[in-house]
Structure formats: structure tokens, C-alpha cells
Amino acid sequence: MKTKAAVESLSKLISVGKSYQQPNGQTITIMENINLELRTGEIVALLGPSGSGKSTLMRIIAGLIAPSNGEVLYRDRPMVGLNPGAAIVFQNSALYPWLTVFENVELGLKAIGEGPKSRRRKALRMIDIIGLDGFENAYPKELSGGMRQRVGFARALAVEPELLCMDEPFSALDVLTAENLRFELLDLWLEDKIPTQSILIVTHNIEEAVILADRIIVLGRNPGRIRADFPMTLPHYRDRKHPAFQAIVDRVYKILTNPDLDEAEPEPVAIGQSAPEPQTVKYQNLPHVRIGSVAGLLELIENRKEDLYRLGQELQLEIDDILPIVEAAKLMHLVALDEGDISLTPIGQAFLEGDIDERKNTIGEQLLKHIRLVKQIRALLTAKQNQRLAEALVLDILERHFTPQEANRQLNTAIDWGRYAELYSYDDPAGEIFLESHVPEEQDEEPVDAEPTAV
Ligand code: ADP
Ligand code: MG
């Protein structure tokens, strides 16, 4: 850890929450009760699955967006508008194509009202420090992705921010370029070549977090909240192969893969077209994966208890690729997770041993038992005389819990899953879900706990 004379508080979030008002008037809470302090002398990594609110949290800290509740302080004073101490590097550095490297870097200095002389001096200095020497007059399109990202860094660092915020700054780069830039940034930081007091890096890459951070914060989803916040005491520069490094990677992986959305089993609710859902009932957030991917995962872990992190490495999958599949399998109770190890449940085993019809049956039973949206669609369908259901109705219900875009994705996933299990079909041109006449007798299936009583 970089040693500073005294550790001071920079940014402080107290009970911060963020919600968005939907066009239909509903409010969606994307983050709740965030308490967080960023201090001088530390690199903090904000990790979490996509959609957990990492970018939102970073933007709140940078003052680009205001929280809906709670307080944001900077240097112990309430913050209004842009954070004067912060600068941001985005994933795609968002350079102005008609400006040269120098002019792009100078831009931030202009924005804070520096005069032409000091602008020139500071911009050239940072261009030099960041390894863009000789490219001052080049245009962004003449540069590689890595060089463009350097310009993004130089632009942010030229204003000498106290707090450097970075949102997945290396994720659009190839592996080698990303690794080079990471270590160059670390050099600048550790050798005090930049006056930056604190760095906040948003990432979904666990190893990147463990390489860079002095402290790791893990966010969870639905709504976004802090699930872990711990210091990293390994000295820089860290060796990825070192057992201690691997142990921390494992620890974070375990936190991330510890299911956080399957605890609350759906409450049975009376379903009726006119009866609104109580606002307190939470919908599961269905991961957008195909049943085929779930089947693939089950086949991979057949007969072995697998460490998810190793599995990800073996398959060259990023956590963001593998987690949704694991979540889907977990929601259907096909796998069990224990401290980062994944194994088949007896139901998952039965699925694997079944032929295609048996597999469909297994999935159908699990969906009706555990997936609220599928169960609800099914109940609405059986309640209707013509056994057809306009998807708009389901969307209206979902849009009280999700953004319109996400509501659409949730519905599509529920339709996909249900169709796989032949619980219902979908009439595309009409936008209707319907029951095929040959759908098996209701009595043979798992009891649906929301019987269509109130129609
Ligand atoms: P992450 O960076 O971790 O992927 P984000 O902070 O981008 O997550 O988003 C968190 C959640 O907030 C997502 O579900 C996203 O759809 C939602 N969200 C972000 N911005 C808006 C907005 N302007 N209106 C509505 N929902 C939003
Ligand atoms: Mg993001």
C-alpha cells in the first residue's frame, strides 16, 4: 500500500440509494443503502456482476448523477453537482475525433479554466508521462485502441485529480495491452508521478481487482448493495501465480458465486387479471440464458464437484459469462453451490440421465415450482377461456419491477424457458402466449400454488 503521511477521508456515501422513475410511473430501485468511504492513499476496486450498479455508484461519487436518497460528501462537505476533485476514465475513452491528441488532453484543463500557458505545459507533461510522446499531433483514428485509451488517461490525469475514477478502463483492450497499461498506471501511482490521492476502479474482472487494489468492494444485484468490503494486504507488484494471490481470487469468486437471489422463494399470490400484484413481492431476476447452456453446464460438472473458478478458467470464460448460467441452474434447483463449489442436485442428475422428453418434463416441473414468472404466465393462461394471453399484459406487470427493456428481456426468457418445457407456446405475429390443446393434464404436474381462482 502506498504510504501517505495521514489518511484522510475523500469521498463518503451515507445510506445512498438510487431509483429511477419509469415512464409508467413506477419506481425501480437499483441500489440501496450504500455506505462507503474512499480515503487517500488507496486504490479501491469495485467489483460485481453486470447490472449491479458499479457504473451508477461511480457516477454518483464523481457527481455526474445525484443519488435518490442519502448523502454524498467530498472532503466532509456535502457535494452538489460535479465532484471538483474527481476525473473519469471510461471504457472507450470518448475522444473527439476532430481534435489531436494534444487538443483532446488539453480539453479537461480548459474545462477547469486553466490559462493557455499552463494548459500547454500540463498537457505536454502528461502526454510525456503517459507514453504518448511524439503523438501530440496525431488524430484518434490514427491510434491503436491501447494508445487511444492512453489519451483518455492523459486527459483525466492532466487536471491532477485527487480522485481518479475509472469505469472498466482496460476491458476493451487486448490482454497484453491491458496488462501493460495496468502496470504503467500502477507505476505512476506507486512512484508518486501523479498527484492523485485515491483511485477508484470499476471492473468485473476479478484478477484485475486483485492485481491493482488495496481494497476490494463487491457489489450484489437487485438491488445493488455492498456484499463485501475488505483490504488487500499483499504487497505490490503481485504475482498472479502466488498461492496468496490465488487464494484472494478464490475468495472473491466465492463471494460472487454465492447465490444472492434465490433465498426468497416466491410467495404464492392470488392471480387475477384485475388484481394488482402487491408491490412488496419481488420478482426473481431471470438470467438471460438458454436452457441449452444450462444443460451444457450440467454435463460439464457431471460426476465431479467442481470449483467454479477453475471451471471458468478451464473454459476460458469470464465470470460474467458463467454466472448467469450458474444462476439459472440454481434457480431451477438443478445445481447446488457450496463455498464456490458447484455440484448437481438429484434433480440435476435426473435431468442429465433423461431423454429429451424427460428433460423437458424435469425443466417444466422445476419452472412451475420455482420460477414465479413462468408459474404466473401458466396460471393466467389456464384461467382464460381461450387460453391465450397478450404479452402486453405480462409486460405491464413486469414494468412495475423492471425497466421496459429489462421487462422485455425477462418476458423473453420466461417464454423461452416455458417453450422449451412445452408449458406454453408463443404466437409471434400476435404477440400472444397460448396453451397448445395437447398440453398435458394439469393434475399430472406439480401443484401450481396459484390456482386460477379469481378471474
Ligand atoms: P453495472 O455498471 O454494474 O453493470 P449499472 O450501474 O450500469 O450497472 O446499472 C445498474 C442497473 O441500473 C441496471 O439494471 C441498469 O439497467 C439500471 N439503470 C442504469 N441507468 C439507468 C437509467 N438511467 N434508468 C433506468 N435504469 C437504469
Ligand atoms: Mg458498468
Task: Describe this protein's structure.
With 455 residues, this protein is of the alpha/beta class. The chain folds into 3 domains: 9-257, 3-Layer(aba) Sandwich (Rossmann fold), CATH 3.40.50; 291-352, Winged helix-like DNA-binding domain superfamily/Winged helix DNA-binding domain (Arc Repressor Mutant, subunit A); 369-434. It has 15 helices and 16 strands. It has helices at residues 54-62, 101-111, 116-129, 145-158, 175-190, 206-212, 243-257, 291-300, 308-314, 319-331, 346-353, 356-370, 372-383, 391-398, 404-420; strands spanning 9-21, 27-39, 42-47, 69-74, 77-78, 86-89, 163-167, 198-203, 215-220, 225-231, 306-307, 335-338, 341-344, 388-390, 425-427, 432-434. It has a 6-stranded mixed sheet with strand order 6-7-8-3-9-10, with helices on both faces. A 4-stranded antiparallel sheet has the order 2-1-4-5, with helices on one face. Strand 15 (425-427) and strand 16 form a beta hairpin. Bound molecules: adenosine-5'-diphosphate and magnesium ion.
